[in-house]
Amino acid sequence: MTRAEFLRLAMASMVGLGLSGTGRAADAPAPAPAPPKPMGPMHTRPIPSSGEALPVIGVGTWQTFDAGPDEAERAPLRETLKVLFAAGGTVIDSSPMYGRSEAVAGELLSELKAHDRAFVATKVWTRGREEGISQMRKSMELLRDPRIELMQIHNLVDWRTHMKTLRGWKSEGLIRYLGITHYTASAFGELEAIMRAEPLDFVQFNYSLADRAAEQRLLPLAAERGIAVLVNQPFGGGGLLRSLSGTPLPGWASEIDCSSWPQILLKYVLGHPAVTCVIPGTAKPGHMMENCHAGTGIVPDGAMQKTMAAWWKNR
Q1: Count of C-beta atoms within a 10 Å radius of residue 257
Q2: Assigned CATH for 50-314
Q3: 141: which of 28, 82, 101, 223 is 20 to 30 A away, CA to CA?
């Protein structure tokens, strides 16, 4: 996809999503409709353990990439990946627990000849050393890649056993980075303990405007320990977006180059400097376009993050 083709798709997608007419604060006059701005270059942030630059918006594959072989199901996923790459994104996050997602991602990356453009992250999600090794080798087979950029211990299942394996695999060059994950605040205590005790490249957890528990200890600790952060559920599993449907955008949205709620929610997460990349799941190219737009332009600073949090509290 050429840059010109990408911009034409961006304009068409934004119009289709109704992005040209932004919302407004209740006490502010309605602004004149303006055409959406062309997307600028996606921001990157360094992986602390290596210094490698990672684009700040990726894509998660839970449910969204668990598709059958029918072309009607595959076509939008293929276009979603094309949009991600054209916008400068690279991160694709999957797991053996996501049904056919690993296989579908691997097949599409092969079709697009895009393995060298992708930062593929997946997980080990089983108990026992041999079972873990078998599952990870199967993931490599499904993803059609003999080396995985990031292998994570999913939901901390048997993490001590798998951590030993991952350290060996990293030294052998089978993976480039290792990490741990969870998706609920109830696990934050255990995540914190492991982050303090173990040298990690990545940690992945939930964080959003409506779920800010990670701000208390995990995000500051990640910055202190030099651990890259992947954020899942920035939209609250979709419920957060549904709760905001029909709500006018606040007047400050334009100050951070936002013209939709998905962009606002993603930019809130990116406003924390410890966050390395956000991985909202989607199977729709237009939504992928909108998510990528959040990785460009003005990033909220600490003061704006407080404004956004106060708006949410008092809405």
Answers
A1: 16
A2: 3.20.20.100
A3: 82
Q: Which residues contact 243 (CB under 8 A, 6 or more apart)?
A: 236
Strand, coil or helix: 21: coil
Please tell me the predicted confidence (pLDDT) of residue 39: 67
Residues linked to residue 12 through DSSP beta bridges, in sequence order: none
Nearest to 96 by CA among 160, 162, 141, 146: 141
**What are the sequence ranges of the domains in the chain?**
50-314
What does pLDDT average to over the chain?
A: 90
CA dihedral (18, 19, 20, 24) in degrees, to 10, reads: 110
Partners of 120 in the β-ladder: 92
Which has the closest alpha carbon to 98: 146, 143, 162, 50?
143
| pLDDT digits 0-9 by tens, 50-63 | 999 999 999 999 99
Cβ neighbours around 157 below 10 Å, total: 17
The residue to which tokens 């950029």 are assigned:
149
